[in-house]
Amino acid sequence: MPELPEIETIARGLRPRLEGATIATVNVRRRDYVRCPPPSASAHLAGKRVRKIRRHGKRLQLDLAPDGEITVHLGMSGRLGLEASSATIAKHTHLRISFRGRNLELRLTDPRRFGHVRVRPHRSSESDLGPDALAIRLPAFRQLLSRPRQIKSLLLDQTFIAGIGNMYADEALYEARIHPLRPANSLTQKEIERLYNAIENVLSSAIGNKGASIENYIRPDGTLGTAHFQFRVAHQRNKTCPVCGGPIERMPVRNRGTYFCPACQT
DNA sequence: CCCGGAACCTGAAGGC
DNA sequence: TGCCTTCAGGTTCCGG
Fold this sequence. Notes:
Distance between the termini: 28 Å
CATH topology of the largest domain: Helicase, Ruva Protein, domain 3
Number of helices: 7
Largest sheet: 5 strands, mixed
Oligomer: single chain
Order of helices and strands: HEEHEEEEEEEHHHHHEE
CATH class of the largest domain: Mainly Alpha
């Protein structure tokens, strides 16, 4: 599923082709997926220019000129792609946007519909998201960990730090050798620094792999990426820890499969 | 404030 | 082959 690295990859792919483009038509197939004030998404968007494409956490944002914005959250199974206007429309396509003078459509598919799109006629500066996981500085990160909440639960809370999903939380905690259930405020300074560095490391190396493997990991379709081969604990059911050779364990944390090495993560 | 659990949703995967 | 169950997880909400 798309997490920060995959969204970043999408943003980098869209920028050179969409920034500067002017929206021609908007086709909303599933109304409840696209949240938009009246009268319609089309009325708000047609004729506007894509000024800038940004990412914050797992959220992708298209800033429009002269005003307005589109924000996209892909949830678990969302895909965002550019296709020729004549290309067959895939199942579960909820939104299509075409652009003036270009044989291109931005298409969003999302079978499970955990994602959503928001259309706003005016840009808003407010955000319900915490600082981006790749932009946060160490002192701010340290500040976030000053509460007793379980560390994994904290990492997954997008209002505290934005962009980390279940798999990357497991990978970062493993790399930092920290048990997922440790109260955040019990971490030593050294552990906090290890975790901070591990998050940056895990996320940027996944971006280096174009985050492509994540989607393929869930739904292998013959075009396997490479990043999931780098997972050391996440989803490594019945495998052994590459460091100590002991078994990797799985336990539920807030209803999520949590993988960790009980010997290395303390 | 923190936690656990349920709900939303579809497709993949495994059992029989 | 095919039906059935289980699992997967980002987010939100509810009860303890």
